[in-house]
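Worked example 3. Consider a protein that binds NAP.
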Amino acid sequence: MADFREGTMGVGIAGAGGRMGRMLIQAVLGTPGLTLSVGSVRPGSNLAGRDLGLLAGLEPSSSFADSDPAALFSRSDVVIDFTNPSSTRTHLDLAQRHGVGLVIGTTGLSDGDQAAVNAAGRSIAIVQAANMSLGVVLLQSLVQQVTATLGPDWDVEIVEMHHRHKVDAPSGTALALGRAAAAGRDVALADVRQSVRDGHTGPRPPGQIGFATLRGGDVVGEHTVIVAGVGERLELTHRATDRGIFARGAVRAAAWLKDRPPGLYGMTDVLGLA
Ligand SMILES: NC(=O)c1ccc[n+]([C@@H]2O[C@H](COP(=O)([O-])OP(=O)(O)OC[C@H]3O[C@@H](n4cnc5c(N)ncnc54)[C@H](OP(=O)(O)O)[C@@H]3O)[C@@H](O)[C@H]2O)c1
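Given these inputs, the predicted complex is written out as structure tokens:
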């Protein structure tokens, strides 16, 4: 399969030219035992052929950007994908064809995309998480514990803010926190989710889990889960100030995937918290 150095694990990066792609290049190059195999860029991109180290603002790495996604999978043990939903679908097919493990950080997947990820987990090993940071993984389990303890008399609202370039809303992390809050109450998020309020909405129905989305500037990612009772409220906040936390989590997940049996795993598995 791969043409990377013997004894190391070859990690490919899909979307190497993106905000996360460049952070991932830095994280892979900084991790002993991992070799950066290939970084993919969109067909026709003027980044094709560029040295990946230079692309990420580092020394030359002797690994290069390639616009052929098949090269990414034929030369890697594991591929990390932070791109967009349609590219992730393509990468999912290639990963299955080549028997390559996949770390999926892309958010905004449709129900159909997610069903394809679930199905692929029967034939290859996948780690998928809307947020690869340790803090958010812990926040999810705290939120579940809080809503299980406090019950439906307490109103749950989730507020998130991201940079102006983000294209999906609410964020994948906000939805994951919503699923954790719903799980604490033993309900499905889809049955209680309220993502938009505008005009004469009437009073808040009990049991609802509400979302509010803010976009602006260069905010890396902020999430607050508010659990509001009568006379008191809890606010649990995570603030990401550096995209490196997501990249380091994704690279840790890639290393963890080596020789893992097929399955769809989350960061709680990677961190041994499952
Ligand atoms: N799970 C987590 O912890 C986490 C953390 C941060 C972000 N994310 C998610 O990760 C995704 C990417 O975020 P970002 O901020 O890095 O976005 P971004 O800066 O837009 O990067 C996406 C990159 O993917 C490239 N791309 C698109 N289609 C491609 C294809 N077919 N082949 C190769 N490259 C392709 C884009 O190239 P072009 O510019 O040429 O289109 C772009 O360079 C989003 O879904 C975001 O929500 C997840």
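Take a moment to read the result before moving on. Residues 14-15, 17-21, 40-42, 45, 69, 82-84, 87, 105-108, 129-132, 172, 246 surround NAP (CB under 6 Å). Residues 1-5 have pLDDT under 50 and may be disordered.
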